[in-house]
Specification:
single chain; about 110 residues; mainly alpha; elongated
């Protein structure tokens, strides 16, 4: 989930091709790992301790089914919202892309 929600540029800028263990070269040793592999595995283990697999399945389903404003489309849903809103997004977000977050004039 962490890897899919972040742009590949995030991974390159954060980890580059750094090994998890400076004394073990992943290009020369089969069991040596890159820092990003170790970090993602550590995050996954921490997440697994907090939530079971069903939690993730329901979260994914809720995200897939959600339409802003509960309309048939993004445009209709946004038009139904009466309150002032502010949408802030990241240009590098691969889950909630800028195109999907930007309000379109009606």
């Amino acid at each position: 989930m962490t890897l899919n929600a972040n742009h590949w540029q995030w991974a390159n800028a954060t980890f580059d091709r750094s090994p998890a263990d400076a004394s073990a070269d992943p290009t020369r040793e089969l069991d040596a790992r890159y820092a990003i592999e170790q970090t993602l595995d550590d995050l996954a283990m921490a997440r697994a301790e907090q939530a079971d697999a069903n939690h993730l399945l329901y979260l994914v389903k809720a995200n897939q089914a959600f339409i802003t404003g509960h309309g048939e489309s993004l445009e209709e849903g946004l038009a139904r919202i009466d309150a002032p809103t502010l949408v802030i997004y990241s240009e590098n977000d691969l889950v909630f892309t800028p195109e999907e977050c930007a309000a379109r004039p009606s």
